Every structure is written in C-alpha cells, then in structure tokens.
Amino acid sequence: MGKKKNQKQQPSASKDDLLNTLGDFTSKENWDSFFTIRGSDDSFEWYAEWPQLRDSLLPRIQQHPSPSSLSPSSSLRILVPGCGNSRLSEHLYDAGFGDITNIDFSKVVISGMLRRNVRDRPNMRWRVMDMTQMQFPDDTFNVVLDKGGLDALMEPELGPQLGTKYLSEVKRVLKSRGKFICLTLAESHVLGLLFPKFRFGWNVCLYAIPQKPSTKPDLQTFMVAAEKESSNELLQIISSFDHSSLACNPNQASGLLEALESENQIRGEYLSGSDVLYSLEDLQLGAKGDLQKLSPGRRVLLTLGEQGVSHFCYKAVLLDAKQQSGAFSFHCGVFIVPKTRSHEWLFSSEEGQWQVVESSKAARLIMVLLEASHANADMEDIQKDLSPLVKPLAPADNDKGNQIPFMTASDGIKQRSVVYQGSSSLTGPVVIEDVVYENTDDDVSHSLPFRRLIFERTEGLVQSEALLTRDGLFDKSVYGAEMKKASSSSKSKRRGALKRNNESSSKMKVYHGYLASSYHTAIISGFSLISSYLESVASSGNRVKAVVIGLGAGLLPMFLHGCMQSMQIEAVELDPVMLNLARDYFGFTEDKRMKVHIADGIQFVRDYRNLYAAGNEVLLSSNGSCKLSDAESRSTAIDIIIVDVDSSDSSSGLRCPAADFVEESFLQNVKDTLSEQGLFVINLVSRSPAIKDAVVSRMKEVTLRT
C-alpha cells in the first residue's frame, strides 16, 4: 500500500517524458521494462480516453451486421492487438462485448492485465503474441481494434516493414464483413501505408475523435474504420468531419488532409480507368481481373517490391499477348530494360511494348523498367531480387511450375567512364561520358571510343555523340588493326577495362569529320533539297549563311564548318554552360566563319526578321542582338536555319524542340527571314503521331501562305 501511495504522490509524467523513458517502440525489452516500472494498475492511455472515444467507437462496432437474435457479447469476436495496460478492452467488456482477445508481445503486461481482470472479467482472454505474426487461423475475428499499435510500429527511421506485416495479418484474421478500427494520430507516413492497404474490397471511413477542452491545439486522435466487403469494389474514403473545422495541431491537420486528398485522387484515377500504377496486392485482389488467367490484350502498369520486403522497388508493365491462339515459347517471361534504354520508344510506349511481346513469344510478359536507383546493382542481383516478386504474376498454367525465364535488353555498351558531371541552372544535370560499344557489325567506328553529352532531365537523353581518335584524325586501316588487336585481349575485368579506356580516351580528341548521331545525319541530308542553290552560291564566291539554334556539344556546326568552306555559321545557344562544355570537352572552336551568340533562339530570329524585313543589312553581335551593319560586316537573308533544341517540358508531348519553336508566330518569322531558296530544318521528336502530324500541318500552312 505504501508503494502505491508514494506513486500517487508523484507528479504525473508528461507524454514526452514517457516516450523518452521508453525509447524504441518496437523493442520488446523496452516495453517489458516500461510496464515493470509502471505496474499493471497504473494504466496509461496513449491517445484519447474512454469518455472521448465512447460515442464515436461504440456505434462503429455495433453497426457490424449480425443476426438480430444474438446479443453483441455472443455475436462479435473482437481482437485488441498491442493492448498494453490500456483500459479500452475493459470498457468494451463492461459495455456488453464479452468475446474479447487481447494480445501483446510483452509478457510483463499480459501477466499484469490477466491478474487485474481475472475476477471481474473472467471471459476476457490475454495472450503473449507478436502482432506482426499472429497465431490465429484465417477469418477468426469480426473486429480488430487497434489503439496506437500501428503508429508504434511505424517509426519513420525503421520504415514500413513491420507495419506492412501487421496489416497483412489484420486482413488475414478478419472475417468477411469484418472491421479494422484503427485509432491513430494520422501522421502522413502512417496513412501513406494504411490507405493503400485497404483499397480494393474495403469500405473506409475516417472520423475525428473529440478532444478534451484545451487552451491550445494539440495532437488529435482519429479513427479509421475499414470494413471488409464481399466484393473487390473500390470506393472513395469518406470523412465524417468538416475539414476546415479541425482544431488540432496545424501540421497534423495539413498532413492528414493531404494524405486523404492524395489517396482519393488515386482511387478516382483507378475508377476512371486511367493508366495508373497498381500494387501487386491490388492486382491479387482482382483490381484488373483474375491474374491466374490470361486475358488477351491486358496491359497493366504496376509496382513491384517494397522496403523491408525486397532490396529494390521496380516499375513494371504486365502484358498478356493480344493473340492467345498461337504457339508460345513460354507462358510467362520477364524482360528487364536497363535505365539507359528505358526511355526508348520500343520500351516506353504502349505500341512499342506490344511489339516486344510479339517478338518474345510469351503468352504473358512482365517488362521491368530499371531506374537510377538500380544503377549500381549487378544484373544477377536484380534477377534474384525480382524472382519472388514476379512469381505471383505468373498464370496458373505456367509451364507446370517451371522457373520464369528472364530476358534483358542490352544497353550495347562494353566500357563506360564519366569524364564530367555537373549541372546548369538552365539545362539541369549534365553528364559527359566516354563509352565503347559492343561491336555488333563490321563498322570499325563501333569499336572506337565515343564521347557523349547527356541531359538527365530528359530521361537520360544522349544529346550529342562524337567519335574519339588520336589527334582528332581518322584512318580506318590503322584503327581497324588496333581494334582487332584490342578485341583479342578484352577478357580483363570490367574495372580494369574502364580504367584503361579512361586513360586512352584522355589522350584522344573529338573527330569532327564524322556524325555519330543519326538525327544529325538526317539534318544534313536535308541539304540535298537546295544542293543546286548551295553550289551556285559557292561558285559565285559568296557565303552561304546558316543559323544553328541549339549548340549542344557543337558537333553539327563543327561538321558543317569543316565540310563547307563557303558557309558562314551563326550558332545560337541559350545556356553559356553548354558553350564552355563544347569548348572544353568536344573541341569546339570559333573563327571568322563560326560565331556563337548566347541568346534566346526565338528572340534572335524575331530581331533579325524585324530589321531585315525593313530593308536593312544586319550586323550580328556575340550577345545575340541584331543591329544595322557597317560596311565591313554585312548580312542579308539567311539561307539555312536549323533548330536542334530539346524541350524541358514533357507535358507538351514534344521531346524536341520546345513547343515555342513550332508555334505559328515563330514559323512565320523563319519564313520571312529565309532567302528565296532557303532551307528550314527542325529536329522534331514526339511519341505522339497526332502531335507530329499537327506540327507538320502547321509548317505546311505557313509555307503556303502568301
């Protein structure tokens, strides 16, 4: 008695003091120590107490559908996981719910609670059990009532692993039409796990528990009630309170409302049939039909893996072949696409993906698109990590349980070394790397090192690519012999090969007489349209005037400069960092026939057009401005305008160029600026045929306009 009296005289500890005493919420030893100190009679309610809970909680439990002839105590089996020494289950028992099982992994607290209730509540059950590994059969309980248990498992630094295991157990032990009632502080990372786990086949409602009268906003307790439906229907989450009237901590309120809005937006996209990412759990619940059966033409975007379950997370596409009547090499296969190729049309577009399915001869193909997070992982480790994740996606008749085969799209690169990595405020992250490709044909150049300029903002787009040779010269017979010799000793380890390649490439220079990028070759081929005009200008001793908008690595202007001695080239580049990189890493130089203007390409053409259209000869300055010329430096109409710029805004549907370069106003300025026999070439890249057709149609319309 004396001990109890002394305890009562002690000032009550604050929540912060208790939390500091406890430490790690997931440690059994810490909880045993905590409950030993507090004792079984000194109960502590971590969240709202019974007077605040009663009016919100009892109706949710009593709403459970059950035979009307049975009383609550005989019809409902209730589980309280992580019960601690809370009086919640005692209050429920006293309210008429007699079939209650309490579990906790602390033997200390279970022993104390059993002693406390054995006389007054003899039918109440108490068991030492880990809530993430419950020892109950499937479909055992009508209600699982959690008061802070999920929150305790979801410490941010530990990740969602324990929370995921616990919620899987909750769903397993609940009967059909059973309810999971979770009392929580509704932190965003907790709701970010809880809401997705109860999507398909669950009716979810959110309630705010009234707070004690307080002089200032405090953390409020919320109740999430998820009812297990008999179908896999997807429903929006309903909240029972006015969002604008929450009187809790502002940060808590904003986090909760943001999580709720985000989840309902995802559910809305699912319901509208949008092309969204499903989880494996969603698919197993029937979100896109029965996965055990092949469904011709089915295409589903999904995520595989999660923290604590696999080493990595993956984005994937499940595709069931459109024609199921033909002969297949296998029922199910996995096709891994490396990050360097995941942006290609063949793997990123729906049309391209169906082509891969057809060529793979698989009845079901799971295409896995690797990302930056997988960059340092070995392909063998990736396959080991993926194997258990893709197994549930195989159809029921998958070659009588044979192992699912893996295929890989090679990135075609044998050696790689990064020579520059930086960033620009205009272009974003930029990488320059030297690579040697796998030699797949007889082209000697494919065995030589190449230098590549990559804009990471556009899914690893290789903006420019240049051949590296000694002294910037190329002799096919000499390099053919050297590459043959090198290939015979290519069995060294990858790291050693990378080091030698880095050493050798550092002694090499960019060869400007070769265009490695196919789109550069396509641009040059357009010159054939005005070949007669170019020859006449050159024979008369005049200069062909060309403007290249978008310098990049400077490879196209340098190629033109070397091949066409009669050409005056004005390169326009918005980002001064690009000019420095072109000079330092790609051998770009300026002279009397090659000038660079740091300017906006659209403004450059507009200014030139305004002055030239007024009948003036124009002087071009290095800062991109146009003004009246003097007698020594004169410029008339431009003969060739090339637009070779990428787009930083993918929402326009254009990868190249930026949308402003295909607007009617710019196209009209180009037309007004070109000479009568002039040529306009634009690098147009879009995955949408409709967008490409619209741009071409607009160009034709401007061209025909008088």
From TrEMBL:
Keyword annotations for this protein, in alphabetical order, are: Methyltransferase, Multifunctional enzyme, Transferase
UniProt keyword annotation of Protease present: no
Q: Which GO terms describe its biological process?
A: methylation
Domain Methyltransferase type span(s) in chain numbering: 81-182
Give the matching CDD domains.
Answer: AdoMet_MTases
Query: What is this protein identified as?
Result: Methyltransferase type 11 domain-containing protein
This protein's species is Gossypium mustelinum
Quote one Gene Ontology molecular function term.
S-adenosylmethionine-dependent methyltransferase activity
Q: Does the keyword Ribonucleoprotein apply?
A: no
Q: Which family does it belong to?
A: Belongs to the methyltransferase superfamily.
